[in-house]
Amino acid sequence: MIWGLLLILLAGGCARTEKPDQIPETASITETTEAPEPASAPGAPGAPETTEAPEAASPPRTVSIPCETHILLDSALVLDEKHLLKKEIRDEFQLEKKFKSYSLAYYETPDRAFGNEGWINRVRMRDGKADKGFELTYKKRYRVEGNDPGLVLSLAEAEGFDLSDENWEAEVEWNHSGMILSISAESKGPADGLESVADLSAADGISMLKAGMPPAERNWKSENWGIRTMEEAEMAGPAHFDRFTGIYLDHKIQIEIWELPHQGSGEAEYITELSFKDDSLDDAAAFRGKLTGLLMDQGVLVQEDALKTKQILDAHFDD
Fold first, then answer.
1. The domain that contains 76 carries what CATH number?
2. What's residue 104's pLDDT?
3. Within a domain: 229
């Protein structure tokens, strides 16, 4: 299906539609080691309230691939003393009372060999679901220049991705600073009685990731490059987050509260991020404008990227 969409994109694309009062600026991507990004890790508790509207920018081209939009919230204002969402936020977004909890870790080399090539390797488990094993994710990320994911899809194919293979999933990730096209594959690893990623040894995580690594990453720069690189990797984490699910204006939304180590002190730091998915960038642009307007009026919008993966890796390698 993605191959067919790619052919449509290469044939011409769609016209832009200006929504200057709704869309915050979308510059080039500067997110995580999934792609190079700024050195700072924004979104920590105590971030100043936003008093000025985001700068206007042209909305993206209309492309029929899924888009996941991420919006950073001020944790100091939306979380209570127990680091859970305040009642007014839960009520505003009709959040379910029960939430899901996850633990995860990233596997990277000290010189960021995977990240320098745009690759992320992650192991994750939902709390209480050890019987389902570990979720292994292999993700390649591309910067989206000019809000045109179609051009990046073409580059991905030229670099060896078989975009007609249903094992690969393409998605646009829209952050404050811009867009990233992610192409990911998933696999499973046995838990063997382990209850969380915290119980997983680095060596066992590496073994699982090697066993499930897709050929595109395994042979990225040379034959078995990914396997050799993974053998030099270290386990960064584990980290933990809680996920709340709700509804706003007929859209399913998720709000995640991440507990991350603060680089230097090692103390817990909380990042709160709202996200939603749409089938196209046009739909995402319209709803994004409504949400950012609401959150700005409430004074809880943070106009920065969360940079969660970078913060986890920095805490492990740079302390």
1. 2.40.320.10
2. 97
3. yes
Listed residue (261, 304, 69, 257) closest to 172, CA to CA: 69
Residue 231 lies in a domain: yes
Q: Residue 149's beta-bridge partner residues? A: none
Q: Count the domains in the chain.
A: 1
Closest of 121, 165, 139 to residue 313, by C-alpha: 121
Residue 3 has pLDDT above 60, yes or no: no
pLDDT(9) > 50: no
The pTM for the full model equals 0.79
Asked if residue 34 is part of any domain, the answer here is no
Interstrand relation of 134-144 and 234-248 (parallel, antiparallel or unpaired): unpaired
Over residues 120-130, the pLDDT tens digits come to 999 999 999 99
Question: What does each C-alpha distance from 56 to 23, 217, 289 come to in angstroms?
Answer: 6, 38, 10
User: Is the Cβ–Cβ distance between 196 and 238 less than 8 Å?
Assistant: yes
Looking at every residue in the chain, the average pLDDT score rounds to 83
Range of the structural domain that residue 135 is part of: 2-7+66-314
Distance CA 178, CA 232 (A): 32
Cα–Cα distance for residue pair 129/200, rounded to 1 Å: 15
Among candidate residues 82, 75, 22, the one with its CA nearest the CA of residue 49: 75
C-alpha distances (whole Å) from 229 to each of 79, 113, 141 are 39, 7, 18
Comparing 55 with 237, which gets the higher pLDDT?
237
Asked if residue 46 belongs to a domain, the reply is no
pLDDT higher than 90, residue 61? no
Work out the burial of residue 64: count CB atoms within 10 Å of its CB; fewer than 13 is exposed, 13-18 middle, 19 or more buried: middle
Instruction: Assess contact for 313 and 236: CB atoms under 8 A.
Output: yes
